[in-house]
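TASK: fixed-backbone design
INPUT:
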């Protein structure tokens, strides 16, 4: 049932990709030719189609069986191969189309490897008719994903249509850092969803409540450390990364700070969204997903003409804060009942640390670009200082939860020996 549904979505994606490939070049016709832009859009999108059509349900099966580490292992191998292949093509003088086509081919290996693993380790019968009743909220889940996609790409589209390609370039450099930071947080905690689904299915609410405390603590601890370090180091990184580039002013501290806050809130909601999704509560939160997307679009369109990149970032912050808060409130009212001030307290502690890190960075770090070695030394020192401070504050305010995390870690280490 899941495979049939996902494959229909894959064909919808393919149709949307074809339309976008035809329309998007007209938005940037002053910068690139129609054929250049259209062909690049198709190349960038085709690997996504292959992954959805051939491999995503196998990944879902393995995640439900709590074998997500194998999916991540395959992704890691693919990323390494992509990096090596891209470096080789660039070294041989390949253009952006050739390099991205090579990446698309490499990433298309993902579903093949997943299929081979599933074929070897699971006895899947093909003669069983699909039971779509088991995934009756599939369109609600799909609607939420579409809304999240719109929210996630609003900044880029608003800047493309209402600003300049140079501003898009500035946004991309900053967003590159934040997207990868979120991936680090997700990598830490993604295996939790299948475990929570199992607990909720068995009605083990006390176990789910205790594991939520552990999950929350890990997410907020990791998010606070990573985004505090990013708040301090992102401006020096951008200065170093664009040292010899003069097409635009890439150093935008206010924009960087707002994007850091938006990125942090996108991580704050992860534990609550995970449990809500594991419980299958897609329909009640569908409208909130569209409010998030609409809020981002509306505020960004209004503010971009007055404040440019900062205006777009304000729209993203407002929308992300709304959605994170909605998830936290819904979870605490309907699935795992507890006081709502718990979420507010964790957010306040995390944001306070991030803002303190920004202030410390402004006072202590040099305002001119440093060498790569100097930046690495600064980043290591900042990470150590922020980590120590974050652990101390969490031990002071959430000592019992930190003890639970430590006990869980020790249990995991003993099991693996």
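OUTPUT:
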């Amino acid at each position: 049932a899941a495979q049939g549904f996902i494959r229909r979505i894959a064909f919808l994606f393919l149709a949307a990709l074809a339309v976008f490939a035809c329309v998007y070049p007209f938005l940037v016709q002053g910068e690139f030719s129609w054929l250049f832009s259209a062909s690049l859009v198709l190349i960038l999108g085709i690997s996504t189609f292959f992954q959805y059509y051939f491999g995503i349900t196998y990944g879902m099966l393995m995640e439900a069986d709590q074998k997500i580490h194998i999916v991540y292992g395959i992704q890691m191998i693919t990323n390494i191969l992509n990096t090596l292949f891209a470096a080789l093509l660039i070294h041989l003088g390949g253009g952006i189309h050739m390099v991205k086509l090579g990446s698309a081919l490499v990433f298309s290996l993902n579903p093949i490897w997943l299929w081979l693993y599933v074929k070897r380790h699971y006895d899947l019968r093909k003669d069983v008719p699909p039971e779509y009743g088991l995934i009756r909220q599939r369109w609600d889940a799909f609607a939420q994903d579409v809304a999240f996609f719109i929210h996630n790409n609003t900044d880029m589209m608003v800047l493309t249509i209402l600003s300049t390609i140079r501003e898009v370039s500035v946004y991309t450099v900053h967003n590159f850092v934040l997207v990868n930071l979120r991936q680090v947080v997700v990598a830490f905690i993604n295996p939790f969803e299948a475990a929570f689904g199992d607990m909720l299915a068995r009605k083990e609410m006390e176990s789910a409540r205790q594991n939520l405390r552990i999950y929350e603590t890990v997410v907020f601890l990791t998010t606070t450390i990573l985004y505090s370090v990013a708040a301090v180091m992102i401006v020096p990184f951008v200065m170093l990364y664009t040292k010899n580039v003069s097409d635009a002013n890439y150093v935008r501290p206010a924009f960087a700070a707002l994007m850091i806050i938006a990125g942090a809130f996108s991580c704050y909601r992860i534990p609550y969204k995970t449990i809500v999704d594991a419980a299958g509560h897609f329909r009640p939160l569908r409208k909130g997903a569209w409010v998030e997307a609409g809020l981002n679009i509306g505020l960004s369109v209004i503010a971009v003409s007055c404040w440019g990149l900062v205006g777009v970032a304000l729209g993203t912050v407002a929308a992300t804060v709304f959605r994170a808060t909605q998830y936290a409130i819904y979870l605490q009212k309907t699935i795992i009942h507890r006081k709502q001030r718990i979420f507010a307290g964790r957010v306040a502690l995390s944001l306070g640390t991030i803002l303190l890190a920004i202030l410390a960075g402004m006072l202590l770090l040099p305002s001119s670009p440093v060498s790569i070695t100097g930046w690495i030394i600064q980043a290591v020192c900042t990470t150590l200082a922020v980590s120590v401070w974050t652990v101390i504050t969490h031990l002071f305010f959430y000592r019992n939860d930190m003890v639970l995390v430590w006990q869980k870690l020790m249990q995991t280490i003993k099991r693996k020996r």
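COMMENT: Residues 205-241 form the longest helix (37 residues).
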